[in-house]
Request: fold
Amino acid sequence: MPNAFRRSYISGGSSSGSAYVVATGQVAFALGTDTAGSGRVPAGLNNIVGLKPSKGLVSACGVVPAAQSVDCVSIFATTVGLAARVLAQAMGHDPADPYSRKLKLASSPLPAAFRFGVPDRLEFFGDELARAGFREAVTRLRDLGGTPVTIDYRPLADAAALLYDSALVAERYAAVRPFFDGREQDVMEPVRGIIASGCGYSAADLFEAQTRLRTCAQAADTMWDRIDVLLVPTAPTHYTIAQMRSDPVALNRNLGAYTNFVNLLDYAALSVPSSMRPDGLPFGITLVGPCGSDWQLADLGQRFHHTTGLLQGATALPLPDAEPIAALQAPATVKVAVVGAHLSGMPLNGQLTERGARLLHAAETTPDYRLFALPGTTPPKPGLLRVAPGAGSPIALEVWEMPLAHYGSFVALVPPPLGIGTVDLAGGGRVQGFLCEARASAGAQDISHFLGWRAYIASLRAA
Reply:
């Protein structure tokens, strides 16, 4: 199947037909199968979304297996929102599928300030346009609130290698054994060679391979202590049809460099378009999360996709408005007004961001407050004091939104004479915010005429 953008290039993977008809606008969505990446690589090569659910979430009953214990039914669509709606209808336990599972998916989005893993070694097989596309994706994810964290990619690469280079490949032989034993000569290469390689392993070899896989899994799972999601290229490069015909085994292995480990390690994954390369070919990225993180990946993936400005697939259609991921429940939040050292760019702002708080807007108080520079505080802090109506000044502040689950730990950090109370905003409205005790103003410098802490700090620097 040709690529939807340049017909001399491949469309990628055994589900490339499904990806092609979605990318060219012939259907709204299509199903694929994903054992080693066939539900993701074709998406990345054709500028569409490839949703690879957690194993067992969608029944594979009726699907001709490749490796039944790791096969997944995948979803191709031009938008994450549509793919998520299809998943919501398709998922569910099916006793007819021996690998179907009753899974409870995470129902809250990733934190506003999230950590994403980036492999410590990246291979693009000489494709510098793909390398540049990945750097751009890292920047875009940072702009969405992410912090990149370098992770050790070796356990993931070692797990991926077991898919074809160990006794695990015997499962591919088992899937078609009755047919293959009698008609091996009718199977085309390189499929014949891969299946045939599974014939010579013993049961002991299989147990040994499974133990090696579990060793890789134990090593890899430590990365989830440091990250919320893993970022990888969907495919490290593009190949022409002629190149693929000349060396299909090696080049297919290259295309699966960042996909082959996912199902073996029981992760969920979502491939989303990232950019169009200068040569007119698409570049896509994949977000990988632990089993059950499907809705979280959809939420982040949709936000990422809608910052790209890309069209839908190979059509001239712009992306529609983002739609809520219905299965996600927004966490309860509280609005907090900050006036001093917690303002963005100030020394204590990290106490907000590390709790997943996000800046909503700048504002100011009603003219019923006075602002004092509190002596002897480290870092320097102001005190906001309510006074008689009209006897103060409008003081600049910022309103932040924080998950309620982290609010208690934040309030516990507030030292006396500061505290949290109710602050009246100019134009109406009230929020929780920093106030100080009246006694703190005795002997403190009244800086209300600066109308805010930033202006006061700027005056000190100027002096």
